[in-house]
Write a structure and sequence with these properties.
There is one protein chain. The chain has one domain (about 30-175): tt1808, chain A (Alpha-Beta Complex). The chain is globular, with a radius of gyration of 19 Å. The protein has helices spanning about 1-10, 30-45, 100-110, 150-175; strands at about 50-60, 65-75, 80-90, 115-120, 130, 140-145. It is built from four helices and six strands; from the N terminus they run H-H-E-E-E-H-E-E-E-H. The protein has a six-stranded mixed β-sheet, with helices on both faces.
Length: about 180
């Protein structure tokens, strides 16, 4: 552990050359780290009218063998604590959201009986979507929580955009 701390404190990086220190190789699951970061950031920064729940399990089969673990579910405290949005973090750099990711977050929305599914990307370089899936009235959107800029600024932009999408989805369901 000390070697890993030294690695970061000295702002070191891996190279093909031998360095002054030995260290056991390690891997960081960046997808999981991004997911955990978003969950913790949302716990701290979600407005008080909402509650965020990470890793919510939704059982598909009666015996519980088939289930989903949804990254994040946002509940509206002002609307009977109902699920208003499911969020799925995507540590990917695809130019366009993948159809499988869109389908996944759409199914999560169906499972939670809400009208909005959001894909969260760590970059602004993704072509964002903001579309309804067929005639289902389920809206699927993508947002950035950019790791390429100041975290506080990126987080505020993310939350502001999420709020706008939630409000527009609420208005659509009343028309």
């Amino acid at each position: 552990m000390h070697a890993l701390c030294r690695f970061f404190l000295e702002q070191g990086g891996p190279t093909i050359n031998s360095g002054n220190y030995t260290m056991i190789p390690f891997l960081v699951d960046m997808s999981r780290l991004f997911e955990l970061f978003i969950a913790e950031w949302m716990k701290i920064n979600t407005p008080s009218d909402y509650e965020i729940r990470p890793q919510e399990r939704v059982e598909i089969s009666e015996d519980g063998i088939v289930y989903f673990n949804i990254d994040l579910v946002l509940y509206d405290k002002m609307n009977n604590n109902s699920a208003c949005c499911v969020l799925d973090s995507k540590y990917k750099r695809h130019e366009n959201p993948l159809p499988t990711d869109i389908a996944k977050v759409g199914i999560y929305a169906v499972a939670k009986n809400c009208k909005l599914g959001v894909l969260i990307y760590p970059t602004n370089k993704v072509n964002h979507i903001n579309s309804y899936i067929g005639s289902s009235n389920i809206k699927v959107c993508s947002l950035s929580f950019s790791l390429e800029e100041d975290i506080d600024i990126a987080g505020k932009k993310f939350l502001q955009n999420l709020s706008l999408i939630i409000q527009s989805t609420k208005q659509q369901s009343f028309t």
